[in-house]
Design a protein that fits this description.
alpha/beta; Rossmann fold; Alpha-Beta Plaits; 2 domains; 6-stranded parallel β-sheet; 5-stranded antiparallel β-sheet; 11 strands; 36% helix; elongated
Length: 224
């Protein structure tokens, strides 16, 4: 059975708490850390694994077991120095994916240069949206259009390669409507249903959220 990823969130401001709570709501393990004891005490009712600690100290991170965490989200945009140090230390400890929240374009460039695998602007990406993207296996990006529908970028599944949209019949199976195809960073909004799909394509779809969860569940079962 495929092992669930583990997550750590550094910083328990509004963004960090939103990410943590959404991840926990979806049944994954989250370690939340902040140096402000008041923030930790305020969050612990919603986030069981909360620690008051300095994430810019290498020894502290080792004691927290950060080297065993799959994804670290650094939600301390107001403190660039701390974000930089935490990013560097996490990568040195072998964390596969470090995502850093940043306050400006320049900050994002700096955090990318010191090792962040992904940077996010809080104005453009809410904590809840980030959590949903992380949890949506194979979903490159997700934008909620309403309570029931989302626009999603989704990788072409291996079993779809060489088949066209008519053969796959995604609309009937998963209520998926393909509205564009991305290849080589070019978006083509004219979708030819007879065109065979290849592994380098990304599909832009509009779909029912429950149907997307069904597709994700089917993918997880194949990996079990």
């Amino acid at each position: 059975m495929k092992k669930k990823k583990t997550y750590a969130v550094f910083g328990l401001g509004r963004y960090g708490r939103a990410v943590s709570k959404e991840l926990i709501k979806n049944g994954v393990e989250v370690l939340a850390v902040d140096k402000d004891e008041n923030k930790v005490n305020a969050a612990i009712a919603d986030i069981p694994y909360c620690k008051c600690a300095n994430v810019t100290d290498a020894e502290v991170l080792k004691q927290l077991g950060i080297h065993n965490i799959d994804v670290v989200i650094i939600a301390m945009a107001s403190n660039l120095e701390a974000s930089v140090m935490a990013t560097m230390l996490c990568k040195e400890l072998g964390v596969d994916m470090v995502i850093a929240k940043c306050a400006s374009e320049m900050n994002c460039k700096i955090l990318t240069k010191v090792g962040a695998d992904k940077v996010v602007y809080p104005e453009k990406e809410s904590g809840i949206r980030l959590a949903k993207n992380l949890l949506s296996s194979g979903f490159v990006d997700m934008i909620e259009l309403s309570k029931d529908a989302s626009m999603v970028e989704i990788d072409v599944r291996p079993e779809w390669v060489g088949k066209n949209l008519i053969e796959l019949n995604l609309r009937a199976k998963y209520s998926i409507n393909v509205v564009a195809i991305i290849k080589n960073k070019k978006i083509n909004t004219y979708v030819d249903p007879s065109l065979p799909l290849d592994k380098d394509m990304t599909l832009v779809i509009i779909a029912n959220i429950n149907k997307l969860n069904k597709l994700k569940a089917n993918e997880t079962n194949k990996l079990s």
